[in-house]
Amino acid sequence: MRKALIALTALAITAGACQQNSKTEETNNDSTGASKVDKIEAPVPAFSADSAYAYTAMQVSFGPRIPNTPAQTKCADWLISSLKKWADTVYVQRTTVIGPKGEKLPCINIIGSFNPAAKQRVLLLAHWDTRPRADEDAFDKTKKLDGADDGASGVAVLLEAARHFHAQKPDAGVDILLVDVEDYGDPANDNSFCLGTQYWAKNPHVPGYTANYGILLDMVGGRGSQFYMEQASKQYAPGPMKMFWDAANKIGFSDIFRYEDYGAYITDDHIPVNTIAKIPTFDVLAWQANGHFPAHWHTTNDNMTVIDKRTLQAVGQTILQVIYTQPFSY
Fold this sequence. Notes:
Keywords: Acyltransferase, Signal, Transferase. Residues 1-19 form the signal peptide. With 330 residues, the chain is α/β, with parallel strands linked by helices. It is 32% helix and 18% strand. The strands form two sheets. It has a six-stranded mixed beta sheet, with helices on both faces. Helix 2 packs across helix 9 (309-325) and helix 3 (70-86) runs parallel beside helix 4 (148-167).
């Protein structure tokens, strides 16, 4: 994906172109002796940053998850087996997409569905592949990178969330979409990024699939990361995004989820979900107040040394807070 930062004025020119709250029931008698049913809200599960950190490290241990490499196959097998332990249903899309130079790239999208009978649904997604080269590196732009933050961190947060959805079933339907071949593209061609998501948006895992809204996680584990409201997200999914930010601030992460408006537009996986699948989706993605991405972005420094458990905790606990207490309160 080309994560290009474009000024707000440029966006104005181009915009036209693109719980179970886990409640239990108790029967009591009121003053007339008639029975009544009270809904008792269960506590929101505690997100484990230790688990999310370990899931990040596991992905990195396979090596760079580049299409057409053994690491791609090994990591896909692990992701599929992990979701099968927790999800009600797991779907695997195996296809071939065409890279920016006409190369054929194997693509493996993995979907875990929770509470499939629920009509009201939330889509959670992240990409699990790694950019094939550290093209922002100051020393060697041809080297491979671990992609600990850019890719693995978002997937890790969703895996830990999946573990909780299995242990404490949410009222809402939840679908976790792990997309492949997101970061293989050419910066000169925005459409050459997010190839796995483009395929899924045109060929959903369930014919006619839709969700009330989607949440994209990308680069959500870096030390010192902050999250600002991205402009395309504000255009397509302002209500769900503000609900998410408000929840994060309410539970103690106001230093990480910020309301300042820096006018940034990001080309990321939420764009095809919004424009092709027509599911309002917002992006949780780190960048700095100066408009730049974190210094480790697309460099060999994107390794486990940049991963911070508090950042993972902030994102993961907010996901659980929203899903279990207010998934549609926007």
